Amino acid sequence: MSRGICPRVNSVGCFWIFSLLTFAVKVIDVDTYSCYEVRTAFQQVGPLNRVPETPVTDADLLFCKHQGPSCCTRKMEESYQFAVKRETLHNIQAYTHEIKHVIAFHVDAFQDMFQSLLSFSQGHLSSLLEGSFPSLSQQALPHVNQLFSSLSLYLRGGNVSVEGEVHHFFNNLFPLAYTRLINPGVEGSIMVGSKMGDCLRMIRPDINPFGNHAVVMAQKLAGALGVGRQLGLALEEGLEVMNATEYARLSKECVKSLVKMMYCSHCRGLTLIKPCGGYCLNVMRGCLACVSELDQPWRRYTRLVEKLTHAMAEQHSLELAMLGVRGHVNDALLYTELHGPLITATVDKVCDLSTGEATHMHPTRPEVKASTLTLSSPFPSSPSSHPSLEELQGQLGHLKRYFLNTLDRYKSFFGMLPELLCEVANDESTCWSRDGVVKSYTGRVVGNGLYAQRNNPEVKVRNVECAVAEAKERLENFNTDTEEMFPELAEMEDWEELGSGKREEGSTTECDDEDGCQASGDGQDKHLPEPSSAGKPLGKHPEGDSPQENPSKPPLVKMIGGSSSASWTQCCSLALLFAGLCLQWILF
User: Are 265 and 70 a contacting pair, CB within 8 Å?
Assistant: First the structure.
C-alpha cells in the first residue's frame, strides 16, 4: 500500500508526512473549537452568555456573514450595534467637549473684561462729577449707575439700545445742569421733580444744551459696544452648534457599517486587527455626512469671530470708547455752562418759566427721581479699586491673542472629524477591510458632505433630514446677520493674513478620479485638539483604565500592529495549505 501511495519515497518519509498532517489536524481542532479571545473582548460589550464556547456554523448572522464557522451570534450582533453607537458618540463628544470648554471659557473671560472696563469707566465718571461738579454729583450718580447698568446688560446680550440709554442719561442730566450749573439760584429739588423737570428732559434733544457731545458719545459707545456684544452672541452660537453636534443621530446604515468595521473581525477570531485607514474614512464620512455639512458655515463663522475680535480690540477701540465717557460728559457740562444765558432764554420761552407751567408735557420716558433711586451701582464707585488702564489694556490684548490662536485650531473641525475618529486605523501593514484581511484598502476614498457620499462604497447615505440641519440653518443666518450688521468686517483681512502664520485650506468635498484622494485627508488643517481623557479615538483606552475597572464604559476595539498570525483562522489556513502541498507531492 505504501508503494502505491508513496512510489518515490520510502516508508520513513511517509511516516513524517503523515505525522505532519496529524499535527495540522490537531492544531485545527484546538483552535477551531475555542472562542476564548472573542469572549474576552466581548466582556465589555454585552453578557458573556451570548458568546458560544466554540465556533458555530449556523449562526444566521445579519451583518457579519462569512464562510466557515463563526464565534458570533445574532444576539452578539445586537450588542455590537449598541456598542458602536455608544462608542462613536462618546468619541465625538470627547472632541466637542474640548471646543465647548474653550468657547465657554472665553465667553466668561470676555464678559469679565467688559465688566472691568465698564467699572473702570464708571468710577472715572463718578470721580469727575464729585470733584469738578459737586453741586450736582449727588443727584447725578443714580443716573450714572443706571446708564452703566444698561450698558452692562447690553453687552450680555440684553435688548437694550445703547444710543437710547445715552440720550436718556443726558435727558436726566439736563435738569440738574440747568438748576445747579446754569441757574444755581433756582430751587432744584422742586424743579427736578416738577412738571418743569419733565419739560427740560423732553426738550433737551431739540435745544441741544450739551452741543454735539451727547451725540458723539452715543455713537462711539454704540459702535464699540456693538462689536463686543456681537462677539459674545457669536460665542454663545458656537456653543449651540457644538451641543447639536454632540447628539447627532447615527443612521441604521451607519451602525451596520460600524459593526462590520469594528466587530465583524471578532467573529473570525481576529480581535486585535486594525481597520484600514481608507476603509475607516469611508465609514466615518458616511456616518457623519450630515455633520460634515456644517464645515463651510463653521469656517465662515470662525472667520467672522476672528474679525469681530480684531474690530473690538484693534487700536484699543473698546477701551477708548468706554474710558471716553468721562471726557464727553465733562465737555458736555462745560458747554452748558458756557452757553448758559442762551439756554436759559430758550428754556424760558419753551417751558414758560414765568407761570411755572410747561407748554409741552409729554416726556417720552419716565423720570428717574433721585429720592427713589436707591439701587446701588453694579460696579465699585472708586477708581482706586480697579486695575490700572495699562493693566486692563494688556489683559485684553493678551486675551485677544490667546483666543485667536486657540480658535485657529478648530476652524476645520467638522471637515477633520472623520479623520480624528480614524486615528488608530492602519495603512502600513495588513489591515481589516469589509470582507476580510487585506494588505491595503483598494476602495475609493470619498470626500466629506452629503453630495460626496453618492460614491461611498461602504455606507449608503439616503436623502434624509439631517439632525443638525436646524443648527446649520441657524449658523448660516447668524453669519449673514452679522455681516449685514457690520459691513466693515468684509474689508478686514483674515486672521491668517494678519500674522497667525497659518493658512487655511479648503475642506474636502468630493474626490474626482484624477484627484488621487488620500486616506490621510491631505489638504485639511491639522491644528485640532486632542480629546480629553474622558474619551479617546476608536480602539484606545484612556491611560490607567482597564476593562475591569470601568465595566460601564463603551467597548473598545483592542488592536495591535496589524499581525493576525496568532488567530486560529490563519493557522488553519496555513496548515491546510501545507497539507495539500504534501499530498500533491506524494500522489504526483
Answer: no
Tell how strand 431-433 and strand 436-438 pair up: antiparallel
Length of the chain: 588
393 touches 317 (CB < 8 A): no
Q: Which amino acid is at 436?
A: G
What is the C-alpha separation between 181 and 229, in angstroms, rounded? 36
Asked if residue 207 lies in contact with residue 152, where contact means CB atoms within 8 angstroms, the answer is no
Residue 300's H or E segment, with its range, is: helix 295-313
∠ CA(416), CA(419), CA(422), 5° rounding? 155
Listed residue (186, 202, 208) closest to 358, CA to CA? 202
pLDDT along the chain (588 residues), means of 10: 44 44 42 76 87 82 85 90 93 93 94 92 95 93 96 94 96 93 69 76 93 95 93 95 87 92 91 91 94 94 93 77 94 95 91 50 36 35 54 83 90 93 79 88 91 91 77 94 91 56 40 40 45 41 37 34 38 43 42
Grid cell 449658523 in the structure block, residue? 475
Separation of alpha carbons 354 and 348, rounded Å: 7
Residue 409: how many CA atoms within 13 Å on its side-chain side?
Answer: 14
CA geometry: angle at 141 spanning 137 and 146, to 5°?
155
Q: Which three cell numbers stand for residue 502?
A: 497659518
Q: Label each residue of 338-386 as H, E or C.
A: HCHHHHHHHHHHHHCCCCCCCCCCCCCCCCCCCCCCCCCCCCCCCHHHC
Q: Is 166 within 8 Å of 226 (Cβ atoms)?
A: no
The whole-angstrom separation of Cα 338 and Cα 331 is: 10
Residue 59 region by backbone torsions, left for phi larger than 0, else alpha for psi between -120 and 50, else beta: alpha
| List of residues 6+ apart from 443 with CB closer than 8 A | 278, 279, 282, 433, 457, 458
The tally of CA atoms less than 13 A away on the side-chain side of residue 367 is: 24
Instruction: Please give the radius of gyration of the chain, using alpha carbons only, rounded to the nearest integer.
Output: 37
Distance CA 334, CA 423 (A): 68
pTM over 0.85: no
Q: Which DSSP letter does residue 35 get?
A: -
DSSP 236-265: HHHHHHHHHHHTPPPPHHHHHHHHHHHTHH
